[in-house]
Amino acid sequence: MVIVFEIIYSKNFIYNEDDWYTINAPSSILSISYSRDKIFFSSPNGIFVYDKSFNDFYYSDYLLKDIRDKNIKIVHYDNFRDNYWIVNRNGLMFRSNLSSVWIKIRFNNLDLFSHHNIKNLGSNTEYVIIETNNGYVFLDPFTGIVKNNLSADDLEIQLLSVNWSSSVKSEVSNIPNLSNYYIFNEWKIISNKEFEKNSRSVKINCFVEDNDEYKWIGTDSGELFVIKPFSNEIEEIKSIPPVTNFDITYYDKINKEWWVVDKNWIYNYSDIIYNQEMIFICRWDEKNNLWKEYYQTEYPQIMIKDINDIIRVYDKLYIASNSGLLIYDFNKDKWNLAKITNGLIGNNIFDLDYYDNILYLATDYGLVVFSTMTDKVVTSFFRNLTNKKISDIEIYNKSLLLNTDLGLIKMNLSNYEYIKISSKKFENIEVFDNQIYLSKDSALYLMDENNKLNLLFKHNRLENFDFCEGYIWSHNDKNAIIYNINSGFKMKYNELDGIVSNNINDIGCDTDWVWFATENGLTFYNWKKYHIYE
Questions:
Q1: What backbone torsions phi and psi does residue 449 show, to the nearest 5 degrees?
Q2: Which letter does DSSP use for residue 89 in this model?
Q3: Which CATH class is domain 24-236?
Q4: What are φ and ψ of residue 440, in 5° steps?
Q5: Number of other residues whose CB lies within 10 A of the CB of residue 194
């Protein structure tokens, strides 16, 4: 029997456990296991943990950091030896809680063809046990070697003392009669296998009762429920993000809140839009780890992929979309939508920027000046700019930079006079430390005071970039680059370092952390710990 040690070293540094963490939700809960104070959930997009001591639900970067295939079919915690066991598409793996090394057992060493042959995992004082389609396989819990010398009587006795995980594929189930329980928040108990909310049905995949008599219910939608001891109420865990594929992220630094746009929803039929609850934006209270969803049914014309930019001004949130300017009043808890019928010259709004009680809107038909005092259009007529697409704007030294079909334009905000400073059409404009940075054709440039472009670096298919403490973070869909503005040093980051996915949708940073919005969650990295400002 050949056992493979799975050791994959990080690409750039040797990181500590707290250097990387990811905010994400399980796409589906496939199995449940537990230790004394933690509950473990496997999912097609990773392993998730609920810490009962802190009432905290989180994605486990720590357990998964050396696992390339994060589609985890089963997770099992062996509480007799403090070991973790997982099944993914590549094999059966185990490791000690005190080690970071995963030991891999190939399926053919277990006389199994693939993960499809494994239904569940369990353990007792002597063995780790695999429930298969054809019976049981007993393993030495320290080496993973198959034990074939058990008699039929020994096998029967050993199975009586197994502490099983709960798996969606296992026949081992002790779920109680849910008709004896009740549930709130518009949820309905349909049967022992199904819940329903607003005509949306979710299937119960697995159930387990832990040592403290908490009953945990995992579903095919990734939603998680718990029944606490001496209670008949089924409660939904609310600290789970309602999204998995993170697209646009906006961090409200003053109020310590995040606004997140999901990229999962693809529209095919109008009846999907009107008959099901669809989330078009989410709000995350980071301090209290609470999520609030805002549903598309409030504004059926707003679709998830319509949102292009977000900005908060005092007690209002402004959202640029392809259907107009969506405005949320925090005090009134009310949404309004400004569009062509309200004075806009175009409903497609690509970018927003704010200066001195004025919101500037970049649209497909020109520039719109919008008052945040009255929430009305001030003006949208600018000679030679009408009917010209403006894709990006940026405030610069009491002026406004506009990326237009005509080229790069600089507008004086005191009198709205403007000049063309470049005939090139760029992809992104950013201003940092009173200097202009522009991207075009996978290259990032610095524009000097004579409007000359100086190449800083190239990054294949460069999409977005951000500035923090003398560094530039940029990304394409596969990886990210950190670039030191003073020294010119740059370094590439990808999934081997800790980014949860190799599909990056957005990037942002502050003095200590950089965050990557990906198709598999929002990953944070304590970059300042490894890059000192020069």
A1: -65, -15
A2: T
A3: mainly beta
A4: -160, 130
A5: 15
Residue (of 47, 457, 13) closest to 218 by Cα position: 47
Single-letter residue type at 398: K
**403 membership: H or E segment, kind and range:** strand 399-404
Please name the fold of domain 244-381.
Methylamine Dehydrogenase; Chain H (2.130.10)
Mean pLDDT, rounded, of the chain? 91
Side chain identity at 465, as an amino acid letter?
Answer: F
β-pairing verdict for 399-404 and 407-412: antiparallel
The C-alpha angle 30, 35, 38, rounded to 5 degrees, equals 75
Is residue 312 a contact partner of residue 318, using CB atoms and an 8 Å limit? yes
Residue with tokens 């569009």: 339
Rounded to 10 degrees, what is the CA torsion of 297, 298, 300, 302? -120
For the chain, where do the domains classified as CATH 2.110.10 start and end? 24-236
Q: Residue 497, class by beta-carbon neighbours within 10 Å (0-12 exposed, 13-18 middle, 19+ buried)? A: buried
Burial of 467 (0-12, 13-18, 19+ CB in 10 A): middle
- The model's pLDDT over 443-453, given as tens digits with 9 standing for 90+, comes to 999 999 999 99
pTM as predicted: 0.88
Considering only CA atoms, give the Rg of the chain.
Answer: 27
Please state the separation of Cα 119 from the chain's center in Å: 29
pLDDT digits (tens, 9 = 90+) for 330-371: 999 999 999 998 999 989 999 999 999 999 999 999 999 999
Q: What is the Cα–Cα distance from 506 to 513, expressed in whole angstroms?
A: 14
How many other CB atoms are found less than 10 A from the CB of residue 196?
A: 14
Residue showing tokens 């296998």: 193
pLDDT tens string 413-425 = 999 999 999 999 9
Of the candidates 279, 271, 413, which has an alpha carbon nearest to the alpha carbon of residue 355? Answer: 413
